[in-house]
Design brief:
This protein is α+β, with helices and mostly antiparallel strands. The chain has helices at residues 2-24, 127-130, and strands at residues 25-29, 44-49, 61-65, 75-83, 94-96, 101-103, 113-117, 133-134, 138-146. The chain has two helices and nine strands. Strands 1-2-9-3-4-7-8 form a seven-stranded antiparallel β-sheet. The chain has a two-stranded antiparallel ribbon with strand order 5-6. It is globular, with a radius of gyration of 19 Å. The termini are far apart.
Length: 148
């Protein structure tokens, strides 16, 4: 009888725990080589879902949706290089073709945006092609890599 009571009480608690976990965490799978050598294709990443009040910092790895709604490539995993108010670092030239905009070193990242790059720039679609990324495109910050 006690076992049955524990099972009846534990079931809803497990469901509630699962719902809360899904609400605050997500798992992203790396699908390309843009984040080599940090992350390899197939790596599973535990990420904390981002709330609007969460501040981003340069160096954080984030999970984001493609900022152009017409392009659905699934999740992108990139590193934050600069946040609003920061200066675009030297050596980064962003030729944004669709917006006819060029982002140059020394320019200030606008409010509500960030600058992202892949760790493997030769094989990465990032701010160099997409321009400044709106914060609402960023869904989560990576906490750690999970075991394969």
């Amino acid at each position: 009888m006690i076992v049955l009571a524990v099972a009846v009480l534990a079931g809803p608690a497990l469901v509630l725990g699962y719902v809360l976990l899904r609400r605050h965490r997500m798992i992203a799978v790396v699908s390309g080589v843009s984040m080599l050598p940090s992350y390899r294709p197939g790596d599973r990443l535990l990420a904390r879902r981002r709330r609007p009040q969460d501040a981003l910092q340069a160096g954080q790895v984030v999970v984001l949706r493609h900022p152009r709604p017409e392009v659905d490539t699934g999740w992108l995993v990139k590193r934050v290089v600069a946040v609003a108010g920061d200066v675009v670092p030297d050596g980064i030239r962003c030729d944004v073709i669709p917006k006819n905009q060029i982002i140059l070193p020394g320019e200030i990242v606008p409010e509500g945006h960030t600058l992202i790059l892949g760790d493997n720039p030769a094989h990465s679609m990032d701010s160099r092609q997409l321009g400044f990324i709106p914060l609402e495109s960023i869904r989560a910050t990576v906490v750690r890599r999970l075991n394969r």
